[in-house]
């Protein structure tokens, strides 16, 4: 038995809400620094209920092989994971832009 999506009424395997939701996300990856100069990579811009940010955080931590936390729909990854995180999210179908908070040279 499969679950029925409450939004489109289709079984979860056929549900395209997540695909649509993904396309609507305008994710932003920000490379920044915390106290003590530790680099962190922040992934923000999630909106809507159809994105499972929890498991996305898990996947990102695995892909980047780093620690990370999820707080208020914002994923924080330890270290500079900009490129890995971007590649991963793009491969998942998200639209991602990169912003640099420091004065380093801008990434493409
Ligand atoms: Zn649906």
Description of the molecule:
The chain has helices at residues 17-24, 53-64, 82-91, and strands at 26-33, 39-44, 68-71, 74-78, 95-100. The chain is α+β, with helices and mostly antiparallel strands and 108 residues long. It has one domain (26-101): 2-Layer Sandwich (Translation Initiation Factor Eif1). A five-stranded mixed sheet has the order 3-4-2-1-5. 18% of the residues are buried. It binds zinc ion. Zinc ion binds at residues 5, 7-8, 10, 15, 17.
Strand order of the largest sheet: 3-4-2-1-5
Number of strands: 5
Question: What fraction of the residues are assigned to beta strands by DSSP?
Answer: 25-35%
Report the biggest beta sheet as strand number plus sense, adding barrel if it closes: 5 strands, mixed
Summary keywords:
3 helices, 5 strands, 108 residues, 5-stranded mixed beta sheet, alpha+beta, disordered C terminus
Quick take:
The protein has helices at residues 17-24, 53-64, 82-91; strands at 26-33, 39-44, 68-71, 74-78, 95-100. By secondary structure, it is of the alpha+beta class.
Which helices and strands appear, and what pairs or packs with what?
Elements: H1 17-24, E1 26-33, E2 39-44, H2 53-64, E3 68-71, E4 74-78, H3 82-91, E5 95-100
Parallel strand pairs: 1-5
Antiparallel strand pairs: 1-2, 2-4, 3-4
The structure holds zinc ion.
